[in-house]
Amino acid sequence: MHKESGKSDVRRGLLSVRFVLSAVILAAAALGLRPGMAMLSKYYAKETIGMKRSLRKFDTTNLAGFQKEWKLRTEETADEIGTEEYVIVMLARKYPSEGLKTAYLTAMYYSDPRDKVAHTPDVCYRQAGAIVKAKTAIQLDLPGISSQQTPVQATLVDLKVGTGNRIVIFFFVVEGKFRRTREQVRWVLGMPGNKYCYFAKIEASATYPKDGDPSKATEIARQLLAESTPVLLDQYLPDTGQLGRR
Q1: Which of 83, 193, 196, 244 is a plausible cystine mate for 49, CB 3.0–4.6 Å?
Q2: 53 and 89 together in one domain
Q3: Other CB atoms closer than 10 Å to residue 32's CB: what's the count?
Q4: Which long-range contacts (CB under 8 A, 24 or more apart) does 216-223 make?
């Protein structure tokens, strides 16, 4: 009995020594790891980058099929969307074949790493009282976009707004990449590699009557994105080569 009891005590002693040693090693590792992780986090933290040209100076004359009717710009809007770099403009179609004559373009730019990813139209319009009738993923063929990124993945939202309806098509451009959802934007922003970061939300919309066919409004929104996106990429948003590398 004495021998067995002695062996158990020895085992317990060894186990306790191992436990203490393990705890000491883990604590030492943690103490060394925290500063190291902090240094890595600081090193890989992304920085703000300015636009080639401010969206406040967005030139609608570059759009072949549309012309400006009015442009919205207020301090309240900037506060609400969280950026001074935006354009909201109503456009008239230059060659309307039937009925629907107007379209709307919205583009917002963010570059502060602390910026929250902007809400999507299905959320914004619903908060303003609209009813989301449908929300679907679609593909866009946009001219001037590299073959690796086409077709562009976008989202189409069909809304009941007041006594009429509205089709909205939107997507994000984040550090030169096209993305469809806020979660995808956050993923790109969180990936190390680029020195600078930015994201933009681009959307086009057109209204149609209460009992009307949404296909024409969809066609107009697609056309507006096909004409405006290459302009935004070429003249306003930073090139991927400007983002630098860590």
Answers
A1: 196
A2: yes
A3: 10
A4: 216/98, 216/99, 216/100, 217/100, 217/165, 217/166, 217/167, 218/156, 218/167, 218/169, 220/93, 220/100, 220/103, 221/103, 221/156, 221/167, 221/168, 221/169, 222/140, 222/169, 223/65, 223/103
Q: What is residue 10's predicted lDDT score, i.e. its pLDDT?
A: 46
Per the structure, the count of domains in the chain is 2
CA atoms within 13 A on the CB side of 221: 27
Phi, psi (deg, nearest 5) at residue 115: -65, 140
The domain of 14 spans 1-44
**8-state DSSP, 180:** S
- In this predicted model, which residue has the larger pLDDT, 146 or 10? 146
H-type helices in the chain, by residue range?
A: 2-44, 75-81, 121-127, 182-190, 214-235
- Within a 10 A sphere around the Cβ of 42, how many other Cβ atoms? 8
Query: 214: which 2 tokens?
Result: 């949404």
Express as a percent the part of the chain with pLDDT over 90: 59
By CB neighbour count within 10 A (0-12 exposed, 13-18 middle, 19+ buried), where does 26 fall?
exposed
Same domain, 27 and 64: no
